[in-house]
Each structure stands twice: as C-alpha cells, then as structure tokens.
C-alpha cells in the first residue's frame, strides 16, 4: 500500500498520541472528520495500523527491571529458531522476541521483578527449552528512548 503525505501525518500524530479524538486528529492533519475516519479505517484494514494500546509503567506493576537476552542455538538439535521464538513469545515476562543475525540467533527483551525474578525465569522457563547452546543477558541500567514505532 502506497502511503500519502497525509497518511504519514496521521500515523505520526497517532504515534505521538493514540488517544486523541478523530476530530482532533482531523484538525491536526487538515482533513474533515469524515475523511480522517475513512483514512484511519483504510490504514487499519490494510494492516499499516496494527493496533492501539496503553504503554504501561513496568515498575508500577511490580516488574521494574528490563533484561536484554541473547540466545544462540545448537545447530544439530533439530530445534528451529522460529520454534524457540514462538515458545519465548508465550511467556508473560517476554516483551519482545526477534530472530537476529550475528553471533546470536535470538534477541528477547523481558520485564522482571529483579534478579530473583530473572533467576526464576531462567530456571522455570528458559532452561527447559531444548536446543539453546549459549545465552547472554544484561540488565538495562536506564532507558533513554523507548518508542513503539517510527514514522518517516
């Protein structure tokens, strides 16, 4: 789907504030409310807009620590990268899973209660997944930017 300049303005505005009313959005992008609504529906139906959601403060819900996890898989274990990614994606602590290039096959971002919460994740979840050859994890000390999308 080819995006017009107006579509991109709509997307930028929604990325900045997804809760604004259609009337406010229409005014900001220079459309009537009806035209804006039609474009929004088209962007949603085509899959450009994947959904709407709240950005939750992880600390407020008892998961203040972010762990960045990299995994390398055994090549001869018969376990595919996609299968491990799908397994990781089912765990509630996991915020993001990506198949990657380089020394590691998978990157995952987790929200945990602290070192004990991460130890529990390792023991009860990660170490039960077959085919993981190596893992490397880092606790994030501070986040400087955390956007959910970028619109050119």
Automatic annotation (TrEMBL):
<keyword id="KW-0804">Transcription</keyword>
<dbReference type="InterPro" id="IPR019887">
    <property type="entry name" value="Tscrpt_reg_AsnC/Lrp_C"/>
</dbReference>
<dbReference type="InterPro" id="IPR036390">
    <property type="entry name" value="WH_DNA-bd_sf"/>
</dbReference>
<dbReference type="GO" id="GO:0005829">
    <property type="term" value="C:cytosol"/>
</dbReference>
<dbReference type="InterPro" id="IPR019885">
    <property type="entry name" value="Tscrpt_reg_HTH_AsnC-type_CS"/>
</dbReference>
<keyword id="KW-0238">DNA-binding</keyword>
<dbReference type="InterPro" id="IPR011008">
    <property type="entry name" value="Dimeric_a/b-barrel"/>
</dbReference>
<dbReference type="GO" id="GO:0043200">
    <property type="term" value="P:response to amino acid"/>
</dbReference>
<protein>
    <submittedName>
        <fullName>Winged helix-turn-helix transcriptional regulator</fullName>
    </submittedName>
</protein>
<dbReference type="Pfam" id="PF01037">
    <property type="entry name" value="AsnC_trans_reg"/>
</dbReference>
<dbReference type="Pfam" id="PF13412">
    <property type="entry name" value="HTH_24"/>
</dbReference>
<dbReference type="InterPro" id="IPR000485">
    <property type="entry name" value="AsnC-type_HTH_dom"/>
</dbReference>
<dbReference type="InterPro" id="IPR036388">
    <property type="entry name" value="WH-like_DNA-bd_sf"/>
</dbReference>
<dbReference type="InterPro" id="IPR019888">
    <property type="entry name" value="Tscrpt_reg_AsnC-like"/>
</dbReference>
<feature type="domain" description="HTH asnC-type">
    <location>
        <begin position="3"/>
        <end position="64"/>
    </location>
</feature>
<dbReference type="GO" id="GO:0043565">
    <property type="term" value="F:sequence-specific DNA binding"/>
</dbReference>
<dbReference type="GO" id="GO:0006355">
    <property type="term" value="P:regulation of DNA-templated transcription"/>
</dbReference>
<keyword id="KW-0805">Transcription regulation</keyword>
<dbReference type="InterPro" id="IPR011991">
    <property type="entry name" value="ArsR-like_HTH"/>
</dbReference>
